[in-house]
Amino acid sequence: MASLSNNLRFEEVPDLIEKKNKVPDSVVEDGDAATRFEAVALPFAGALYNKALSLVRRPEEARDLVQETYLRAYRTFVSFREGTNCKAWLFTILYSIFINRYRKRQREPEMVSLDQSDGIFHQTLSTNDWEADFAALTDAGADWQEPEVRHALENLPESFRAAVLLIDVEGLTYEEAATAMHCPVGTLRSRLFRARRLLFVELHRYAQETGIIPRTDH
Amino acid sequence: MPTPSRHFKEELQDLLDARLDPAARSVVEEHLEVCDECQRELAALRWTKNFAAQHFAVTNAPADLEASIVQALRADGAQARSEIIRPAIWQSKGRVLLAWAAAVAVAALVAGSYFLFRPSLPASLARNYQAYEAQTLALEMTTRDVKQMEIYFHENDVRFATRVFDLAMMNYDLVGGRVQRLRGEKSALFVYRGKGNHPLLCQMYEGRPEDLPAGAIRREHKGIMFYRYQIKGLTVVFWPEGGVMCALVSDIAPEKVVDLAFAKAGPML
Q: Which of A5, A11, A67 to mutate to probe the B interface, most B CBs <10 Å?
């Protein structure tokens, strides 16, 4: 068995991203409010659009959601505390608008039972070809087609998808993501855990179907 | 390889995300040294985390996204400032002027309290919708014929040529309408019913986009600027057609109201 212990090294990527997103004090103190707000908040427009699109799926709705997030953020900019994570603050506003306006009409499974995700996940891991499968997945030359791969993310329940996007993609801390999603940290942790498992299963299946993982006959 | 009796679950994720204290981390790492199953699980979680960061971060955000946000922010800020500046002018004058100002203000309060406290245009239209739903706003004419409705508005001295939309292709049937006072002027108000019995209220009045309050979500479509407001679960979408403002109000999904507006917006004949 190939040892995986070298992969256990502590990774501080989320913390580094968090620090990068924090607003420098000098930016907050100088210039008028509008200029400051634009300087501080606009760099996250792309990230917010990414998140909005994953939530509402339609580009025009995503654009509306982002624009409304900025308008609302601007009006409450006076309450924005220096040194806090601006991106997390914007995500909190965006998610709040989404929940109030869009979520009611989204029809999708909100919860996937832990037993269910457990079963599928362990079935995938317990294959005899695990070593070869994993090597194929981690192969740098693997041909992952972006639109199809994104379906794996979109197939997740919304709260799971949001957890992955906020933590793994946007680099928020658990606490910041939990605030943005209006849920306890423990709930966020559990959603992220299930989301990663389900995502792995979906991506593994996709890799098998597209030949990234070579088929073997037993 | 011996398999321990207890496998870790979310603790593996905590290890991956650096959320374990040193003692707990040590326990999990010791377990991992001898547990094939947990090693696989951790490897899968780590791979998934890295894959997500690598593949889901980039979306082709519209090239003009930032510009449209800035435009909306500045328009919103300008409108908000103009609303705030008025009282500041009074405060900056001398005593004599202040006395005059106070007198004028009292007179204005007495004579024009309506103007001081009148609801915004989106709020007015939302109220009309709610009143119609509550059957406290009656239609003066009931018809499914858009031409008849237009003639009714013309004969009842609505000062502009009203274009009553034919929304049959979009599964909305005209129910009827009435001449409705809006800020003292006659406006054309007409109502449709769509699938699920959801009303769609349309109101047209002489005005300009500048009369609308701050806070609109703006969207341009075919050279026309649309202004969307959300009020008490209702979507109100305005757009200009010459010197006339058109507005749609409904409780259906916001983008559906916007789509209807997009479909029917055009020059007022």
A: A67
